[in-house]
Amino acid sequence: MTYPNSTCILGAPVDTGAGISGCAEGPGAWRAAGLIGELQQNGRAVVDLGDARPQPGPALSHANPALRNLSETAAMIRGLGAAARQAGRRCALPVFLGGDHSISAATVPAMAARAAEVGRPFFVLWLDAHPDLHDLHSTVSGNLHGTPAAYSLGLPGFEAFSPLPARVNPANLCMMGLRSVDGAEARRLAALGIDAHPMADLHRTGVTAPLAAFLDRVAREGGDLHVSFDVDFLDPAIAPGTGTTEAGGATEAQAGQIAAMLRDSGLVSSLDLVELNPRLDDRACTATLMCRLAAGLLPPGEALRHTGS
């Protein structure tokens, strides 16, 4: 069945890409915090597609001894990737519920493929303290939630992962909120010319100008826009429920301003919500805030544009 004018949600209960367990409980926590009710505001029809499951494959080994849970994470990326492609065909605006940020190695390429099928350029807004630009060789921590941006860009070093259905053009990627970037990632940011905005700059000059410039380009080129929203984009004082906290994050006012600009643009065509760890949350305050921000950044129901077939 297809739901051409709907917002659909698809869970990805995985934490094998993270350094600590708990994110696998995220999809249930998003739902329990009232995400569906929030999304139903402004006339949106919401369909819950349940949770994606791993697609088993052969056991994987790698020359990098630091890698953790490679086979398990690759299996989830395969299973979620197929489910995300189906979600993109069934409804106008898929919302993917993580899980750790490794889910974006499945969701972002799936949404890029959806845009390519209908001949539209594809853009990504990456709201995160981390650029996640490591490959399987360069990661020192071995945590695969630090790799999805690099994989989605089609960079080398991912022989163990499935071939990409579509890659993201680095020129179409905007990263906001960065404040934990190691040397290898900094070199990649510079070499690729990614539109990257450290949180320190945003605190000093504001979020409006860089986001407005990016959204103007998406609108001018008639593109689809995927937003990948990591809990750790927010300051841990207001969003403690993640294992990847970094001090100095976005305030609630800044996040609300970004959400309002995205909503008013009407451009968002898909969304990731990632790195919520309910075990670390304080009376579900992080989940509740994220649900409100997520609903606030999406276009009204009547503005949804179906991109599937």
Q: Would you mind describing this structure in some detail?
A:
The chain has 309 residues and is of the alpha/beta class. The chain has a single domain (3-303), classed as Arginase, Chain A, CATH 3.40.800.10. It contains ten helices and eight strands. Strands 2-1-3-8-7-4-5-6 form an eight-stranded parallel beta sheet, with helices on both faces. α3 runs parallel beside α4 (104-117) and α8 runs parallel beside α9 (252-265). The chain is globular and about 50 Å long. The model has no long low-confidence stretch (mean pLDDT 96).
Brief synopsis:
This protein has 309 residues and is an alpha/beta fold.
Taken as a percent bin, the fraction of beta residues is 15-25%
- Helix fraction by DSSP (H/I, runs of at least 4): 25-40%
The geometry reads as globular
CATH topology: Arginase, Chain A
Which key features would you list for this structure?
about 300 residues, alpha/beta, Arginase, Chain A, 8-stranded parallel sheet, about 20% strand, globular
